[in-house]
Amino acid sequence: MAGSRWRKLAALALLSLLAACVRVIPETGGPTRPTPAPTPAPTPVAESAVALGVEVGPPVSSLELRQEDAAAALLSFHESCPKLTVRTDASGLTSPGDWRAACAAFATWPYAKAAQFFATYFETLRVGDGKAFATGYYEPEIAGSRAHLPGFDVPVYGLPDDLVRAAPGDAAPLANGTMPLGRYDETGKFVPYYDRTEIENGALAGRGLEIAWAADPVEFFFLQVQGSGMLRAPDGQIMRIGYAGQNGQTYTGIGGVMRERGLIGEGPGQYSGSMQGIMQYLREHPDEGRALMRENRSWVFFRELTTDGPLGALEVPVRAESSVAADPRFVPLGAPVWLELDRREANGLWIAQDTGGAIKGANRFDTFWGAGETARRVAGGMSGRGRALILVPKGTATRLGLK
């Protein structure tokens, strides 16, 4: 019965993606995948939603929740439930047990009444001022091969075994209390791990860490930014890869650097600040472009995935137009999120299933658009502002003393 319900909901979600009236169209113990932000979010003044301040929002029934949108979100919510009902909520808003009633109800809930499901089991909270900023990400497909073929010379590295966290006393803890990532050199001293320039210059060569090879360094750079993707070999075979870890070096969004230097903008003759505009500049100025990419010292390591979609921070597949990345300090991972933005295609109900290196602060989101050229175009140009509401199990506001 569960399999049948799953197929029905999946089919309904697929129909919603094809309908013209619907939106057209990756925390597992280590650092999360970085995501670019055209406009950086303000540094949060608090370290959790509760510390920042929350207030009761409008009833879920008052939101203009489309049935098709709700059905796709319900499927993603269900996929999150095994993690949601056991993980610690860093936002301070909920506890694992709060979600169990809604998760259990999925088994018998009529899929044709998905919108009513959220109105029945959830209430809304506004975190801080509720003013939202959303970008987009997607699953790239680039030319790549398991074997080192002619023209495929960009190594795709798996996680190296000498990338470790410092033992207490060997380095200063990070601001969040965890020990930094790095390596122990030949003298036994803890040092930062190799940065992008060092890795590109061969610091990891000859160690057997290559799980695949990419053809285009610019495409691979942006696949690292997205955190997951697909490699298409010359014979048409597809290899899906996902985030395995990061070198511990600081992530720098090159779009911001380029804007500061006047390399991109809105004026005549300037390159646009979209991902497409940035890539155009990098290709037309290869030497300057290589230097720019190396200003992002962060390097992402990958693993092969056998799932039917890229994995988010919850270790469940993220779904096109249903999954959103958020800061887990302000949004419980697995929770529904309502976005009402000045970009209509991003309006509606999403499920927070992922995180991102640049997705920091309250009401900062990164919407996932799937794979393919349409997803690439929409995600690359996504920059929406408006308001956000977090959907939490009914009774949460009362427990937090808000009612």
Automatic annotation (TrEMBL):
Catalytic reaction equation(s): Exolytic cleavage of the (1->4)-beta-glycosidic linkage between N-acetylmuramic acid (MurNAc) and N-acetylglucosamine (GlcNAc) residues in peptidoglycan, from either the reducing or the non-reducing ends of the peptidoglycan chains, with concomitant formation of a 1,6-anhydrobond in the MurNAc residue
Transmembrane segments: none
Span of domain Lytic transglycosylase MltA: 141-303
SMART domains per record: MltA (SM00925)
Documented EC number(s): 4.2.2.n1
CDD domains: mlta_B, mltA_like_LT_A
Keywords from the UniProt entry: Cell wall biogenesis/degradation, Lyase, Signal
Residues spanning the signal sequence: 1-19
PANTHER family named among the record's database cross-references: MEMBRANE-BOUND LYTIC MUREIN TRANSGLYCOSYLASE A (PTHR30124:SF0)
UniProt name for this protein: peptidoglycan lytic exotransglycosylase
Protein species of origin: Novosphingobium album
